[in-house]
Amino acid sequence: MIYRFDILGSTNDEARNPLYREGDVIIAERQTAGRGQRGHTWESAEGKNLTFSLILEPKFLPINEQFLLSEVLALGLVDTFAEYGIEAKIKWTNDIYVGEKKIVGMLIENSLGGGALARTIAGIGLNINQTEFDPSLPNPTSMALVAGCEFDREDVLSRLHANILSLYEALRRGQKEMLQSRYRSTMYRLGEKHPYALPDGSIFEGIIRGVRPSGELLIEHTADGSLQEYLFKQVEFIIKK
Ligand code: BTN
Questions:
Q1: Can you give the pLDDT at residue 241?
Q2: What is the CATH number of domain 2-185?
């Protein structure tokens, strides 16, 4: 079911209501308290984009394999963009990029029950027809900016919903290697030399070599050839504006 709201605080917060079921989508034309990663807010021009949350109940998935859900969601987005002729990449962990710009942000919130994953709220902010952004945002883009034309938001939502659920069913059937290898080969900056920052502010040059099944990013340090692994928040991409 798709539940539509003109206005909500955050669709991710609304999605916590146990009334909603697996596969349901909670979508708002406007969020007054849209949430992003790392405590940031998510701003989106009213009526131009998609801001929604998808409910999943991945009770079949061990907790330590929850990164596979990120893979399902990211690949569902990449597949949907491909249907519109847009080549998108996955910026570890959950951002979708076109070129050097961010077109989708995701906030995935898992809750546990009885030692397993009980519910996943996948909050997705996808820029579609917005062409002007707050200059304080680092590097936003939209489908309209990339393609030079407007898109039907309902069509994007229904394709995306179908693509994510199809990959989710593949995960349920156990096609984990397929998801891992597709995620890896679609990674932004895979195999390229770029600078990265550590939490202490130091900068190093490295090459992304892939991602562990548990989600750690693998970067080869060009200074000494060592392969290091990083958890979320342990390393930051340096991206020019
Ligand atoms: C990020 O890149 O920081 C994540 C942004 C996630 C935004 C979406 S919009 C729909 C859902 N509801 C929220 O409050 N946040 C997510």
A1: 73
A2: 3.30.930.10
CA geometry: angle at 160 spanning 42 and 79, to 5°? 105
Query: Which residues' Cβ are closer than 6 Å to ligand 1?
Result: 10-12, 31, 34-37, 40, 42, 51-53, 95, 105-107, 123-125
What's the angle, vertex CA 87, arms to CA 40 and CA 150, rounded to 5?
75
Give the phi and the psi of residue 178 in degrees, each rounded to 5.
-60, -45
> Is the pLDDT score of 170 beyond 90?
yes
Fold of 193-237: SH3 type barrels. (2.30.30)
Q: Give me ligand 1 centre to Cα 24, in Å.
A: 17
What is the four-CA torsion angle of 164, 165, 167, 171, rounded to 10 degrees?
A: 130
Task: State which of 95, 124, 126 you would mutate to test the pocket of ligand 1, scoring each by most atoms of that ligand within 8 A of its C-beta.
Answer: 124
pTM greater than 0.85: yes
Q: What would the pLDDT profile of 67-125 be if each residue is shown by its tens digit?
A: 999 999 999 999 999 999 999 999 999 999 999 999 999 999 999 988 889 999 999 99
CATH 2.30.30 domain residues, the chain: 193-237
Q: Crossing angle for the helix pair 176-185 and 153-172, nearest 10 degrees? A: 130
Residue holding tokens 């002007």? 132
The alpha-helical segments, DSSP class H, found in 36-194 are 67-83, 143-147, 153-172, 176-185
